[in-house]
Write a structure and sequence with these properties.
It is a peripheral membrane protein. Its main location: membrane. There is one protein chain. It contains 8 helices and 20 strands. By secondary structure, the protein is α+β, with helices and mostly antiparallel strands. It has 2 domains: 222 residues, P-loop containing nucleotide triphosphate hydrolases (Rossmann fold); 114 residues, Beta Barrel (OB fold (Dihydrolipoamide Acetyltransferase, E2P)). The longest helix has 18 residues. The radius of gyration is 24 Å and the shape is globular.
Length: 366
């Protein structure tokens, strides 16, 4: 059961959404603190954009309530919710200049002309688009268009900003640049922001907290490093991390009062592992991230083994080395200066304290 925040900026309470007999969102509960940056993360079809659209008022919920700044907005029109939304597509008016695009909503709302000019000037300065105000969208790059789309939400002067995968149409370099700009924007404004993405790097770098979703259910809601280091289940562990966490299928055994994880000829002592649930002998999954494995570093680790190199993947600053451990795929991240050759026999070592153990049947963390 989640702990509710006092005076949250946005509060989602027992929210469900059904399309006929199909359940899309299932009894979701999230409280977003004032000025917090929350990222909704998950694979395609997990319900993250659907949840954002419910918050925005673009979809009617089947059950539950939505509060923004303490006001029940569950059935309010989008324009009355006090939110600004940035979509995946830029959705700019091609015949209008940047300035006209920014001011259009304000003019329709009857905002005084001098107030409109003040808001546009402020947004243009924050987003560094002052030189672009008299251009039309066709004369802008993708990154510039997305800045204008963000500016259109910014001029509304709202408390809550909703972002629906705003960087997914940009190339990798532009995504990295805009990611930094969004983080700086949040630092300047201190507004509440809810951001949808399937990109784990965006989630890890932007979020104060991440809500990892699967099948319309929030699997884990916590700080990025907590989710990365202590995932609540195998799905969360496998979804975050590039390369992905190593998983070994095996079983838990107890010998002379000491627990071990056993997979074929591999026997990993678990004396340093902090069990969160009372372990019982039986099928289990052992997970450890590639960067937590030492490579050709000698003894001194609670667990050491030798393994054969199968594939070497140079990545520039580092290298991914694919091994066979317990006859299962196992990846180690090494520096580019220590790259082995295919078919080499190498040694590895790690401390199970950095690992995660999961129940084989349910996938939950042990």
């Amino acid at each position: 059961m989640m702990t509710r925040l006092e005076n949250p900026s946005v509060s989602i309470q027992d929210l469900s959404l059904n399309f006929g007999a199909i359940s899309v969102l299932e009894t979701l509960n999230i409280d977003v603190a004032e000025g917090e940056f929350i990222v909704l993360l998950g694979p395609s079809g997990c319900g993250k954009s659907t949840l954002l659209n419910c918050i925005a008022g673009l979809l009617d919920v089947s059950d539950g309530r939505i509060f923004i700044k303490g006001k029940n907005v569950t059935w309010e029109e989008p324009k009355d919710r006090g939110i600004g939304m940035v979509f995946q597509s830029y959705a700019l008016y091609p015949q209008m200049t940047v300035e006209k695009n920014l001011s259009f909503g304000l003019r329709v709302a009857g905002i005084p002309r001098d107030e409109i000019a003040k808001r546009i000037a402020r947004a243009a300065e924050i987003l560094q688009i002052e030189p672009l105000l008299q251009r039309k969208p066709s004369a802008l790059s993708g990154g510039q268009r997305q800045r204008v789309a963000i500016g259109r939400a910014l001029v509304r002067d709202v408390d809550v900003f909703l972002f629906d995968e705003p960087l997914s149409n940009l190339d990798a370099k532009l995504r990295a640049e805009l990611r930094v700009e969004i983080k700086l924007l949040h630092s300047k404004l201190q507004n509440t922001m809810i951001y949808v993405t399937h990109d784990q790097i965006e989630a890890m770098t932007l979020a104060d907290r991440i809500a990892v979703m699967k099948g319309g259910v929030i699997q884990q809601l916590d700080a990025p490093q907590t989710i990365y280091n202590r995932p609540v289940n195998r799905f969360v562990a496998g979804f975050l991390g590039s390369p992905a966490m190593n998983f070994l299928d095996g079983r838990l055994e107890k010998d002379d009062g000491n627990w071990h994880f056993v997979a074929e000829d591999v026997r990993i002592p678990l004396a340093t592992y902090a069990f969160e649930k009372q372990p019982v002998p039986g099928a289990a999954v052992f997970g450890i991230r590639p960067e937590h494995v030492a490579f050709n570093s000698g003894s001194g680790w609670p667990f050491t083994a030798t393994a054969n190199v199968v594939v070497v993947e140079p990545m520039g600053s580092d290298t991914l080395v694919w091994l066979k451990l317990a006859n299962q795929n196992f990846t180690v991240r090494v520096t580019s200066e220590r790259t082995p050759n295919n078919a080499d026999t190498v040694s590895i070592g790690f401390d199970p304290m950095r690992a995660s153990l999961f129940d084989a049947a349910t996938g939950t963390r042990l």
